[in-house]
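Q: Structure tokens for this one, please.
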Amino acid sequence: MSSSPPAAPWLLVIDPQRIFADPSSDWAAPTFPAAMTQIQRLAAAIGPQRTLVTRWLPTADRSTSWGDYFAAWPFADVPADDPLYALVDGAEQLSDRPTIDEPTFGKWGPQLAGIVGAGAELLVTGVSTDCCVITTVLAAADAGCRVTVVTDACAASTPEDGAAALHTLGLFPPQVRLARAADLLP
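A: Here is the predicted structure, written as tokens:
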């Protein structure tokens, strides 16, 4: 009895938004431009049919701990349609699908799971390595996905925080592995 070949991986691009890319933003990730270059290379190789783009939106209930969060970061407490939350130039063209919008750090949830399915192979990229990437990766691994974090296609809040996040993610093999874009591209 022959087994079927493994499904092609999904490229997950976490939160390529202006709030994380604009150098004037309090949440700017300094290596975002370099990460976006790698994301675009990966998306070109994988194709828009298997590339998914997420957005973090400030729509969480303010009566929860999210109220405290937005009190600490008032510049981000604006309507979801504010230009801060728009995708960066070129991000919309990465995928044939609508963005997956979530009000949470982690993007793994019913929307994403419903598209990729149980046990999917995910190549995870985006911003911020030390926040939305790490929370998404660990939840997806818990759900049974095989996750590769593309280290040079992720951007962190600081180099030190990014290194700490990658160190932590490196503690979860075989469900989570770390690789550079060049290791994954033909």
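A few notes: The chain has a mean pLDDT of 95. The longest strand covers residues 146-155.
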